[in-house]
From TrEMBL:
Residues passing through the membrane, by range: 6-23
Species, as recorded: Domibacillus antri
Source organism, top-level taxon: Bacteria
Protein name, UniProt field: YtzI protein
InterPro entries on file: YtzI-like (IPR047753)
UniProtKB keywords: Membrane, Transmembrane, Transmembrane helix
């Protein structure tokens, strides 16, 4: 019985560490956005 509890605690700790690492990696991700598209003057269209 004691070995099952120890193995369970080890698994819980591994999952906790992996979760914290994943969250930290997500927070450190550099988000980028596309530059705004150039607006065309009214009256001009794209040629088909």
């Amino acid at each position: 019985m004691l070995t099952i509890i120890i193995i369970s605690i080890i698994i819980v700790l591994i999952v906790l560490v992996l979760s914290v690492l994943t969250i930290n990696k997500g927070y450190s991700y550099k988000h980028t956005i596309d530059p705004p598209a150039e607006e065309k003057p009214e009256g001009t269209r794209d040629k088909p």
